[in-house]
# Entry
Amino acid sequence: MKIRECRQEDLDRVLEIENMSFDESYGMLMFQKLLDIGAGFLVCEFNDIVIGYILFWIKNEGEGHIISIAVDEKYRCLGAATLLLSRAILGFKIANQELVTLEVRESNTAPIEFYKSFVLL
# Structure
């Protein structure tokens, strides 16, 4: 697996992954805007196929924010989300962001447990 910056030509695939992962999508316009303004936008490739993405940015001084992370359901449990989140957290550490926030529904227990595993990093 390979983590790299998202490119314009990845956006259709990112939107496809977004739509299969969430009931409400940010939509192509928002993805395009975040790519254009230089938000943290990484994709994970497996066998030259984009299988996941993460969007993040610096929300306030000292605070990073995970906007969205998703992996194609056919490729889950391969470690793509871990790689993506680890790379985003590394970026936050390099930028001296001491706090990382995200939004997740309380009923969404699997992602909550996944995020908790990063608390000690």
Summary: The radius of gyration is 14 Å. The chain has one domain: 2-116. The helical segments are 11-21, 27-37, 80-94, 109-116.
